[in-house]
Amino acid sequence: MAACVAVAAEEELTVDAIHTDRLTLRAFREDDAQDLLGYLHQPGASCFLSMKLDDLPAARAAAIKRSSEPDTYALEHHPSGRVIGEVFGHLEPPDTFSIAWMIHPDFAGQGLAHEAAKAIVDHLFQQRDVRRVYAYVETDNLPSQRLCARLGMRQEGLFKEFISFENDAAGKPIYVDTMQFALLKKEWAAA
User: Fold this and answer.
1) What is the C-alpha separation between 191 and 189, in angstroms, rounded?
2) Which UniProt keywords apply (predicted)?
3) C-alpha span between 120 and 123 (Å, rounded)
4) Which residues contact 72 (CB under 8 A, 6 or more apart)?
């Protein structure tokens, strides 16, 4: 399950740990490399193909890079002790935040992505005073569309042939249709 984000300006913030029933959302560490490789060796959504990792050294470098990125959270699963995915995004000044998530396929369908995304959205609205959160999701990514709906996000648009993440056998770009979902702080508070 994954949602894609638009690239935007970053705000210099440290990642504070956020705790849920089954997860700790925290900064990445170098020793998360093996787990990171586990879900990025074959990314589940085409928008994450550029993040594909081929081996442990690449995963180690990616974990180190993520450890210094603001608003990038490793999802540490309490029962297994593993990092099973991540939630990340970017602040678009002054008060809009793009959000994305991905989770290891072995842990999909257990409500963990919802648990993590809900905790981050609540953190953004309550602690960071963000006014609006949005996510881009490809039309073929039904689990992320359902997650957006569970969060109370509404579909704001459909971008036909919005972007290409890969090429076909002839080298021509494969364009995907992308939906935009969004949620306002006042909608979150009213739910």
Assistant:
1) 6
2) Transferase
3) 5
4) 15, 27, 28, 66, 86, 88
- Residue 79, domain extent: 2-190
Q: How many structural domains is the chain composed of?
A: 1
Among residues 107, 136, 101, 145, which one has the least CA distance to residue 121? 101
What is the pLDDT tens value at each position of the chain, 191 positions in all? 555 443 333 333 456 899 999 999 999 999 999 999 999 999 888 788 889 999 999 999 999 999 999 999 999 999 999 999 999 999 999 999 999 999 999 999 999 999 999 999 999 999 999 999 999 999 999 999 999 999 999 999 999 999 999 999 999 999 999 999 999 999 999 98
CATH number for the domain spanning 32: value is 3.40.630.30
Structure tokens at 120: 């981050």
0.85 surpassed by pTM: yes
Nearest Cα neighbor of 58 from 29, 28, 32, 33 is: 33
CB atoms near residue 26 (< 10 Å): 18
What DSSP string runs through 60-115?
A: HHHHHHHHT-TTEEEEEETTT--EEEEEEEEEETTTEEEEEEEE-GGGTTSSHHHH
Tokens (6 digits) for 165: 């993440």
* Backbone torsions φ then ψ of 67, nearest 5 degrees: -65, -20
